[in-house]
Amino acid sequence: MFLNSKIKGAMVNRESFLTNIAASLTNHWDLPALTDYNSETVTYGQIARQIARLHIAFEVFDIKKGDKISIVGRNSSNWGISFLAAVTYGAVAVPILHEFTPENIHHIVNHSESKLLFTGKYILDSLDYAQMAGLEAIILIDDCTVIKSGKVKVETAEKLFDELEQRRYPAGFMPQDIKYHNDKPEELAMISYTSGTTGFSKGVMLPYRSLLSNMLFAETVLTGLKHGDNIVSILPLAHMYGLAFEFLYEIITGCHTYFLSRLPTPKIILDAFASVKPRIIITVPLIVEKIFKKQLFPAINKPFVRTALRLPLIDERILKRINQRLTDFFGGNFIEVIIGGAAFSPVAEKFLKRIGFKYTVGYGMTECGPIITYEDWTTVPLFSCGKAAPQMEIKIDSPDPENIPGEILTRGNNVMLGYYKNPEATKEAMAGGWLHTGDLGVIDKNGYLYIKGRSKNMLLGANGQNIYPEEIENRLNNTKYISESIVMDSYGKIVALAHPDHDAVSAENLSDSDLEELLDKARLEINTQLPPYSQISRIRIHTEEFEKTPKKSIKRYLYTK
């Protein structure tokens, strides 16, 4: 089934994802597995015991194999255990970004037909259980206690689970008791939603084949990672980039993952790197760029340093010192810093390459769970995001793929089954047997991919979250004083360009300052309905009507530049 099946490493089974999870829990039973930073640590054996208890709960709630289980909350050990419990049971996991609004969460739970919801306490308080009528139960991620249930009394649920657990495992749950779902390559493992809003939801259906293929990829490139190594998880587990490479592969390898359960500010991240000394670092451009700008840029911009950097002999020593300083910021113990999820600043990338910093830029998308291209830091050319990953192929839809940008197409074992309940979108995305990424690029003669832009309207948040302008524009266009609008990314901020409803403005005899004040008030109101990463920072007034195509859609490209 799988390409490169002769490659050996941490994986004990190259056809079954869950067999590798079971083997790791068994083989690393007493090793530390997960830590909520500056809090408690659980071992691999404790993970297995908690999974067994949750499986008993699933049975009590009459959860069947193939039923959907939603998970929404900040990164934590229990978030990871909840995910593992769902897939090892044979249920379909539905991770939801904790930054989604209650309305978004209600929609995803209902659209996915989830029977069970794991959620954090701070999120639970904002949810309306009545709007998720299909749920059998709600379990609090914080301590895995039952909050809502139609099957058993909440007050007696824990006692019931205790009794069933004692009856099933009278000598206590042991490694030999691990028996998980027998997964098949094309079987649905999880649904990852790229958006939360009705009308724009795309539930990416990822089979076990995709999860396993991404793990096989990680095994071939993270060859220096071994059991017992430390990792710091800073990306959302509800996003495939963080889930695959800061959690799942580390579980299979036997690593010790530390979760930053609080908002991962640069200071918190650097403190964690200094104390944990992670062996591999998975991150997004924003974090690296902030460190570059705040820690390195002021130093290298001093007149003496700028002059010295032009002198060959001194230049080499200064660059080496800067590289060591930046390496120390990241804990000093890493094999490589892998950057992905959004476009990387060319200025920062060029400087990192110049000083010899151990970084590489990968490329992927949720629909590939997530990896498409990668190359080791020692060989990847400047501004390239690597070659096609193992199990994957890429090509450019262009008459001259080396020189004329075209849409990036990909196929292989990582690619999704399709979009949940959306056959039209699936057919369009998978036309001709290739996944159409919506991104533009070129490929050089050695197979290295260079991304040149995006052909879709989607924007990317700082941590790689998908931002759909149409969602925000629809809200703007429904306000009293806006006729039409365009939402764009301006230097990392979401900015709206709005054409006023002149009839409404004239009817109330509004001045320019009056209109600006009212639009800003509307902006603040709309932001309460949006996740933090997609909130509007500013509305700029565009007095003329936007130029349209024959189909009366705005020629977006004329304005987003």
Explain how this protein is built.
By secondary structure, this protein is of the alpha/beta class. Among the domains are: 37-183, Rossmann fold (3-Layer(aba) Sandwich), CATH 3.40.50.980; 468-558, GMP Synthetase, Chain A, domain 3 (2-Layer Sandwich), CATH 3.30.300. It is built from 17 helices and 27 strands. It has a five-stranded mixed beta sheet with strand order 4-3-5-6-7, with helices on both faces. Strand 25 and strand 26 form a beta hairpin. Helix 2 (44-60) packs across helix 6 (154-168) and helix 7 crosses helix 8. The chain is globular. The two termini are 45 Å apart. Residues 1-8 have low confidence and may be disordered.
Helix content: 25-40%
> What class would the helix/strand composition place it in?
alpha/beta
Number of strands: 27
CA radius of gyration: 25 Å
Query: Mean pLDDT, rounded to whole units?
Result: 90
Q: How many helices does DSSP assign?
A: 17
Spatial separation of the terminal alpha carbons: 45 Å
- Reading off the top of the CATH hierarchy, the class of the domain at 37-183 is best stated as Alpha Beta
The CATH architecture classification of the domain at 37-183 is: 3-Layer(aba) Sandwich
Which descriptors would you attach to this protein?
disordered N terminus; five-stranded mixed β-sheet; four-stranded mixed β-sheet; alpha/beta; 561 residues; 35% helix; Rossmann fold
Strand and helix map with partners:
Blueprint lengths: L16 H11 L4 E5 L4 E3 H17 L7 E5 L4 H13 L2 E5 L5 H10 L2 E6 L1 H4 L12 E4 L4 E5 L4 H15 L19 E6 L9 E5 H14 L8 E4 L6 H14 L2 E4 L6 H11 L4 E3 L1 H16 L2 H6 L3 H18 L7 E3 L6 H10 L3 E3 L1 E2 L6 E4 L12 E2 L3 E6 L8 E7 L5 E2 L3 H7 L5 E9 L5 E6 L4 E2 L5 E2 L1 H9 L4 E9 L2 E8 L1 H6 L4 H16 L8 E6 L20
Parallel strand pairs: 1-11, 3-4, 3-5, 5-6, 10-11, 12-13, 13-14, 26-27
Antiparallel strand pairs: 1-2, 6-7, 8-9, 9-20, 15-16, 16-17, 18-19, 19-21, 21-22, 23-24, 25-26
